[in-house]
Amino acid sequence: MEFRHLGRSGLVVSEISYGNWITHGSQVEEDAAVACVHAALDEGITTFDTADVYAQGRAEEVLGRALRGQRRDGLEIFSKLYWPVGPGRNDRGLSRKHVIRAVEESLRRLGTDYLDLYQAHRFDHATPLEETLRAFDDLVRQGKVLYVGVSEWRADEIERALKIADEMGLDRIVSNQPQYNMLWRVIESEVVPLCEREGVGQIVWSPIAQGVLTGKYKPGQPPPAGSRATDEKSGAHFVRRYLDDQDLLTRVQELAPLAAEAGLSPAQLAVAWVLQNPNVSSAIIGASRPEQVRDNVKAAGVRLDAGLMSRIDELLSEFVQRDPSLTASPKERP
């Protein structure tokens, strides 16, 4: 495993982190989830990402039990808040009330007394940004949170947060957690340049595009049994936008020989590709089986040559999403 700083902060994280969105508490049984976490630990992953909304808290509980007995100071545990976690009007968003209550619940479920990173899962248009940042800063000063970050925020939202933090003398955000892969590159034109300038690192999710970049979804064929596309509980709707494009699926098949040239599987190539971006601090992988973890971690430390990167660009260019406006938070709290 290789390690990088989280943005310009002093916190060091594993290049590949383990995330349990969809899988823990919903898609796979707990023994399988625990086996995946232990495989991640065995492979040198020290960074684990979750959120209170994943399986309505069950994902945090499973992760907490899976990490029990590990040396806490040797781990970096991240969680997030924003989406509804209860029926109440204040069980969502980034109000001070919800931030303070949500972190206590996450700490309880995870079985830890602090989070290494606490992230605003989306931008909350209904709460003054000053209120959220002050609440985050209070958590840092209380030692319940060591660093704060955001997820799926636009460049102007990140810039506003940094400006307010500087003006008010609050802790700055050190990270953003966006979707990023060979096909979804909406952060490159605005978010990445800003974050490089301001010392904010990217912790990217979906580096293999929900499994599409592995090549397992063949054009003209039904999805493989047991794959994410066949399981509504595992986010099948996220994959369908790709599966409807037969030309894309055909083109993705051509990644396999490029991966082979580099001595990688298509999945390893996809993870290694996002790690070539110097603003990426870590790439989040998920798994329903330990062997998936063991396969994906082989992308750590891989350096792809410029020629291969260019060939990937040429192969997929007509299918790539680049519009920064595609990063959007709900205008009203869900």
Automatic annotation (TrEMBL):
GO terms for cellular component: cytosol. One of its GO terms (molecular function) is oxidoreductase activity. Gene3D superfamilies: NADP-dependent oxidoreductase domain. CDD domains: Aldo_ket_red_shaker-like (cd19074). InterPro entries: K_chnl_volt-dep_bsu_KCNAB-rel (IPR005399), NAD(P)_OxRdtase_dom_sf (IPR036812), NADP_OxRdtase_dom (IPR023210). Keywords: NADP, Oxidoreductase. It comes from the Bacteria. Belongs to the shaker potassium channel beta subunit family. PANTHER family: HYPERKINETIC, ISOFORM M. This is Aldo/keto reductase family protein. It comes from Thermobifida halotolerans.
